[in-house]
Amino acid sequence: MTTLTFRKPSALPGFGLTLGITVAYLSLVVLIPLAATFLKTATLDWDQFVRAVTSPRVLASYRLTFFSALGGALINAVFGFLVAWVLVRYTFPFKRIVDAVVDLPFALPTSVAGISLAAVYAGNGWIGQFLAPLGIKIAFTPAGVLVALTFIGLPFVVRTVQPVLEESEREQEEAAACLGASRWLTFRRVVLPAVFPALLTGFALAFARALGEYGSVIFIAGNVPMKSEITSLLIITKLEQYDYAGATALAVVMLVVSFLMLLFINTLQWYLQRRTSRGSAGPAPHGPTSGPTGGTTGSITSSTTSSTTSVSGIPAVSAVGGGAQ
């Protein structure tokens, strides 16, 4: 007997055509420019390449760039989650305005963001004037770099966590509370596993965005070599000196390290999603049993039967029935 198979209708052309368009577009936008960067670096021999990427000034810029990007992404992972939680779980006046403010770092030109941050955190700024008597200086120091990278990375975390919180089932949290779980235990065993992959994605996006930031940083960092100079600024400096090979050498190092870190984060995210899906596909619960009146009683079968229930890793709570107290 011949089996007839029907392809599902699609609004777009076939696989071959769409795949060809995808490969061509990615090649023009991503692969060819990156390949040109590596080819330009090939004009240097190995010794020249090593000297270009390991000079003390370059290493200092690497340390400042990567640690500031990592610190900003970690700060945004914590406070970005809190912002997303408030926007999803609570209703308050001007909620739409607060939600729109989150996207301002997306919309603002980086130069405007840098000038705004410098005006706020400078020694005579709105916040800087109160920190200066305490000996705390943010503008034109490495701390200014951290502030700028935190500012531009916040929307990435909020916008990746927010949809997951909106789709999460609050019934599981309520069930965990009914089972006697504390708020911390409910957060750790119910809420966090559900949002952690999205939180990790937001962290990775904020980190990657911060690595390449330039416009907002140069207005608040001070740009002092060996102290507050980021790698992006050093690349621009080399280009202004017509040292194109040296600039591309720094760019290649940034590209390779960024790719490896993003690959690690994406692999960790895949592992956590797989582990979460395996954990949620646990043994099927026992079916409901008929009670004395013919109705269903769930897992409690009589007034003298102990029942245990667990929700998403919450330790089971034993409920021993009894007569009316």
TrEMBL record:
The chain crosses the membrane at residues 12-36, 66-88, 100-122, 134-158, 190-211, 244-265. It comes from the Bacteria. It is a multi-pass membrane protein. One of its GO terms (cellular component) is plasma membrane. One of its GO terms (molecular function) is ABC-type sulfate transporter activity. Keywords: Membrane, Sulfate transport, Transmembrane, Transmembrane helix, Transport. SUPFAM superfamilies: MetI-like. PROSITE patterns: ABC_TM1. Residues 279-325 are annotated as: Disordered. Residues 279-291, 298-315 have a biased composition (Low complexity). Residues 62-265 form the ABC transmembrane type-1 domain. Belongs to the binding-protein-dependent transport system permease family. CysTW subfamily. This is Sulfate transport system permease protein CysT.
